[in-house]
């Protein structure tokens, strides 16, 4: 495994504000990025997100509001930035496709492909979906020439445009997928991509005439045209890194992890690799594809009108709750159904009853019996119950690491919750509340609490990629700094350490949360 990694979300189309569906991708990607920073160091991880601001759809959305396209894009991009900040998404670069440095980079890549003969001009007539910003073949459409993504009629457009040759790269793209079995994850999407490559690829229209659409990046070889929005957006994954010379790109792309939704699998599995190969660049490491986040069985989207504001959930339920629900409830790659009641049920059972209650019980006992002092060495007990608990907590890092690498965020959290369950059962079995009534048995109580406090430290540390605010809050209650937090079980909290008084982490919710 490389000591460097580059991580991206899809570049969000900015024709409307962010919703919970966007949060699904952003929060899963953020958990992966935070985990990689812990493993590789922050200097060796870059995380890119941003907004895709050109194209027909954005211009029409702006005109509907009586706004200039750039003013509209400024407004929507700011909402996405605010949303990312409100959800504690730890990106390193927020790229706007209207940024001058991005536009210059796109023109550089266009010129490179044009000079090598991969871009050519022809007259074309085709079926075009405004929502997808792409042409479709009739066999890709639903009966009646309906877009399969937006369920709306496509438009027939006839005009001269520039095209990028795709077919000549098809076999190289296919061989790469066949050779690298995890190039597209999960496997179901790999198989779907291979089926897409069974038939010859139609060349990709990469331009729009300014006579029809002037909202875009001007082609460097024909100033009467702007580039097609998909060609423009892909390069945002790389365009604003500190150094974008060929040496850097050749080093970055092979360690790049793209996180996308399944609705843009074709563009990322066929168009994007062809664009890279045409520019003489290597392919990325992984295409990590997630399913849809549905609401009451229907895909959550702007066009359906069933969008939910993720930051409102953050403000209503508290930090990390939406993040925890998404990562714990759904299997990455599969569709998930989002309902407010399911969020509340998961909150009460896992956060209030398990994590919150355990933290409160342990710190309350430490304050009541020892004035917050830890007077025994964690892990020193020889009782079989102690040994079993120590093994459970000590194994958390090694258990969750391969799961996160494989995008099994729900199973990684399940492993942590198994440890919490073991701790709660340990309290029942050892009965420290009862033992503490006998002064002679306080040393045993001290050992029990030391084991539990150290376990909470390990849990809080390993929760950081999934619940960064909660992790910091628990570590603060345990009076543990960043350096001490990362120690293996038994090497962190020592006798003489003092923990702080407890405060409620997750008060139970007994009413429906507002939308």
Query: Helical percent range?
Result: 40-55%
Measure the end-to-end span: 43 Å
List the uncertain runs: none
Q: Examine the coordinates and then state which fold CATH places here, giving the name of the CATH topology of the largest domain.
A: Rossmann fold
Judged by helices, strands and strand pairing, the structural class is: alpha/beta
Instruction: Count up the domains.
Output: 2
CATH class assignment of the largest domain: Alpha Beta
Number of helices: 19
The radius of gyration over CA amounts to: 26 Å
Let me know the number of strands: 17
CATH architecture of the largest domain: 3-Layer(aba) Sandwich
Note the beta-strand portion.
5-15%
Q: What do the pLDDT scores average to?
A: 92
Distinctive features:
515 residues, alpha/beta, Isoleucyl-tRNA Synthetase, Domain 1, 19 helices, elongated
What's a quick, concise take on this entry?
This protein is 48% helix and 15% strand.
Give an overview of the whole structure.
The chain has 515 residues and is an alpha/beta fold. The chain folds into two domains: 5-317, HUPs (Rossmann fold, 3-Layer(aba) Sandwich); 339-485, Isoleucyl-tRNA Synthetase, Domain 1 (Orthogonal Bundle), CATH 1.10.730.10. Helices cover 48% and strands 15% of the residues. The protein is built from 19 helices and 17 strands. Strand 13, helix 9 and strand 14 form a beta-alpha-beta unit. The longest helix has 31 residues, at 340-370.
List the helices and strands and how they pair.
Elements: E1 5-9, E2 12-13, H1 20-40, E3 45-52, H2 56-64, H3 69-86, E4 93-96, H4 100-115, E5 119-129, E6 134-136, E7 155-164, H5 167-179, E8 184-185, H6 187-196, E9 204-205, E10 207-209, E11 218-219, E12 222-227, H7 229-234, H8 246-252, E13 256-261, H9 265-278, E14 286-290, E15 293-295, E16 298-299, H10 310-317, H11 321-329, E17 336-338, H12 340-370, H13 384-394, H14 396-405, H15 409-430, H16 432-435, H17 442-463, H18 468-477, H19 482-485
Parallel strand pairs: 1-3, 1-13, 2-3, 3-4, 8-14, 13-14, 15-17
Antiparallel strand pairs: 5-6, 5-7, 7-9, 10-12, 11-12, 15-16
Helix pairs in contact: 2-3, 11-12, 12-15, 12-17, 13-15, 13-17, 14-15, 15-17, 17-18
